[in-house]
Amino acid sequence: MAQLKKILAGSFAVMMAATMMAGCGDSDSSSSAGTDTNSNGGSTSTDGKDSKKVYNIYCWNDEFKSRFETYYEPVKDTALWEGVEVNWVINTNKDNVYQTKLDEALKTQATDDMKIDLFLAEADYIVKYTDSDASADVKGVIGLTDDDLKNQYKYTQDAATVNGVLKGVSWQATPGLFLYNTTYAEKVLGTSDPDKVQEQLSDWTKFEEVAAKMKEQGIAMVSGFDDTYRCFSNNVSAPWVTDNKITIDPQISAWVEQTKSWTDKGYNHKTSLWDENWTADQKIDSNTFGYFFSTWGIPFTLLGNTLATSTDDGGKAEVGNGGYGLWKACLGPQSYFWGGTWLIACATSDNNEITKDIMLKMTCNTDVMAKITDEQQDYTNNKEAIKKLIDGGYKNEFLGGQDHLSLLTEAAEKVDLTNKICAYDQGCNEKFQGAMKQYFLGNATYDEALATFKTEITQLYANLSMD
Amino acid sequence: MKKKSISYAKWGYIFLIPFFVVYIIFALVPLVQTFYYSFMDRYVDTGAISIFNPTGNVVDNGFCGLKNFKDVLIGENAQFTQAFVNTIIIWLVGFIPQIVFSLLLAVWFTDIRLKLKAQGFFKTVIYLPNVIMASAISLLFYSLFTKGGALDTLLNSGGDMSLLDQVWGARGIVGFINFMMWYGNTTILLMAAIMGIDTSLYESAQIDGANPTQTFWRITIPLIKPILAYVLITSMIGGLQMFDVPSFIGSDMGSPSGKLKTIVMIIQTGKDSAIGQVGAISVLIFIISAILGFLTLKVMNDEPGKKKKKKPAKSR
User: Fold this and answer.
1) Residue B14 is nearest to which of A13, A95, A110, comparing CB atoms?
2) How far is A377 from chain B (nearest CA, A)?
3) Confidence tier at A112 by pLDDT (50, 70, 90)
4) Which of A219, B40, B102, B240 could share a disulfide with B187, CB 3.0–4.6 Å?
5) Is the CB of residue A342 less than 8 Å from the CB of residue A138?
6) Mean pLDDT, to the nearest integer, of A223-237?
7) pLDDT at residue A117, as a whole number
8) Which residues in chain B are closer than 8 Å to A441, comparing Cβ atoms?
9) What's the pLDDT at A9?
10) Which of residues 240-299 of B touch A (CB under 8 A)?
């Protein structure tokens, strides 16, 4: 009996220990599918596989994933991809989660067997990765030539160039436009023709006059506080941070001043970027006149949000479904850019040939680029492709048949990122907008809001200081 | 002593090994490390990254004494005091209704004369909110009360500011969520305490003509005091670590105006960069929680101990 008890007790102990270990080992086995998959930082999930056989891509949403699957997969160099599978590691951009996870993974790359091959970076923090040994030289190491890159907008290359070395390439250029609701334009301005609307919106004084007219009809000029932010923040004279010191640029102060006065006058609906009401305001009958959007804003935000029956519920993206075809674009009061995604090859990657193939086909290939712009309304980073489309009589059905590519081309030429971006932009922008919201709402004075920003930002980036 | 018997004691230790291994790796080592970091002037520049020099962005100025504690308590950008006050206020907003409701329900469920029907059903129902994830409930409330949300439209009818943008509205909602999640748990704890009271005490009190209010204040409350203290202090320690609900309702900045920013939310903001300061804040929470923990032990041991003090030889 005693013997039996011993055996039983012993086997229970073993079982407990075993379950514990199993619990540890299994936790990170699912990171290839789904939109919000969390991989745990240190090692990527495909334990035991040959790193050359796995192509690891880090990104923050499925924008690139869907582009990759739709436009790259059909034209990929199948010989290179023989037996190689893609592993997507997707973490949300919000609250620096993506950067934190990516950084943890990068730090172990020198010794880790599973190599990251490609990662994505946004304009708000691209400097951090290009000004680092984590990124590979696109020309020297990956092997793209100047001839391959000749059709790209120069600013997209400048943004990714550090000390004369190109470290990243982008498939999209992101000049900004003002997208407006044609119904309200007819009602208040008497016309919805882009040229005539642009005339009335060509600078901030005129823009504000229109806002006052809209207000009389119960229409808000913009949805929320942050809509106009990029117009100002992309025209600053110096980046947020220089020599570890944070400065509030006069342009940023101008945004605060204007937004406060607009809020008090009722020119907006007091929403914040990306929140539910901001999204709801994109319906065609929501009493909101327009949105400042860059090229990705149409396919990824406005198009989906303005449909009366969403595509998830079986609605089609066609005229007659909500706001489809009832929006138009103009240049707006101030030129700006917003966002942009760059592909960066990881310096320790063991799949550089594949990276080269992806970069060539997704950022340089005129045919692929033209196809993306034509089908996805994304403004691709290829002058020749865009020109071809415009010459071919391009019409955007979503914008009521307007050729907005000519506008974007005009805007893209004006984009200049020199001395405007730094590695801390994402945190600074998010925290500043968050802090100022309380000022706009009347919960805090400007000084109180600024003090909140200061404590938050110095906590988030402890190496920075602010006067 | 006289006879050799089979000792099963070693099996006890063997069963405990997994716990101790996990505890040492995942709790004790980080704890000691946190104390260590709280005395170091150390931070990370998260705006830089390097593969071949992974620690190149860490700035380590070595031992700095109590500088971190000074910075978080009285420094120029000190947040601890405000966050501590916020935490306590939000906790109170939830705890006061929680204890009142729980006491009332516990007394009703255990009342010998009331004999409520379908008790099992009610006990399950009031415990249910605790089973749902805090983040799920928070998101639900957020979408109900955010501008344009269902309840916001009902209350404001398109009016100016949603409850979430008002300090007391937001605090109230967070408090309510905490109340809703925890009153069932507290009720069950208090019921267990009340059922431990000898029913003959109530019967004799009733025979003597005591009304329910009198039995409640004179019998129930004094006899469940240790459990009440336990509930109070565990809830306070839990409250000090409040994070998910306020951060969902008020974003990572504790909107409106940082009045929802709790202590743990500061830690979450700075954990990747301000290592020394965040360590100091963690140590402060640890100290406060430890004091509260000792208080519980003292209160719980004191009560029965008073009578037994004459015979100190046998404590248990």
Assistant:
1) A13
2) 30
3) confident
4) B102
5) no
6) 92
7) 93
8) 161, 165, 256
9) 61
10) 251-253, 255-258, 266, 269-270, 272-275, 277
Give the fold, CATH level 3, of B80-305.
MetI-like fold (1.10.3720)
Mean pLDDT of chain A: 86
Predicted pLDDT of residue B314: 41
Interface touch B49/A9, C-beta < 8 Å: no
Closest partner CB to B49 (pick from A9, A129, A277): A129
pLDDT at site B316: 37
CA distance A294 to A124: 15
Instruction: Name the residue among A297, A320, A343 with its Cα closest to residue A167.
Output: A343
Domain coordinates of chain B in residue numbers? 80-305
Residue B170: predicted pLDDT: 92
End-to-end CA distance of chain A: 77
Residues of chain B with pLDDT under 50: 305, 307-316
Residue B82 CB-density burial (10 A; 0-12 exposed, 13-18 middle, 19+ buried): middle
What per-residue confidence (pLDDT) applies to B158? 54
Which of A95, A105, A93, A450 shows the shortest CA–CA distance to B269?
Answer: A95
All CATH 3.40.190.10 domain ranges in chain A, comma separated: 51-173+339-391, 176-336+396-466
Per the document, the length of chain B is: 316
Instruction: Return the biggest CA–CA distance within chain B.
Output: 84
Which residue intervals of B157-256 are DSSP H helices?
167-195, 199-207, 212-215, 221-223, 225-240, 244-250
A108 contacts chain B (CB < 8 A)? yes
Say how far apart CA A249 and CA A247 lie, in whole Å. Answer: 6
Residue A24 touches chain B, beta carbons under 8 Å? no
- The crossing angle, in degrees rounded to 10, of helices B263-270 and B275-308 is 150
What is the distance in angstroms between the Cα of B293 and the nearest Cα belonging to chain A? Answer: 29
Kindly tell me the burial class for residue A204, based on how many C-beta atoms sit within 10 Å of its own C-beta (0-12, 13-18, 19 or more).
Answer: middle
CA distance A457 to chain B (A): 9
CB contact under 8 A, A462 and B161: no
- Interface membership of B68 toward A (CB under 8 Å): no
pLDDT of residue B2: 55
CB–CB contact B273 A96 (8 Å): no
Residue B85: predicted pLDDT: 94
Q: Please, are residues B265 and B83 in contact by the beta-carbon 8 Å criterion?
A: yes
Superfamily of segment(s) A176-336+396-466 = Periplasmic binding protein-like II (3.40.190.10)
Which residues of chain A have a CB within 8 Å of the CB of B53? 133
pLDDT for A36 equals 39
- Domain A51-173+339-391 sits in which CATH superfamily? Periplasmic binding protein-like II (3.40.190.10)
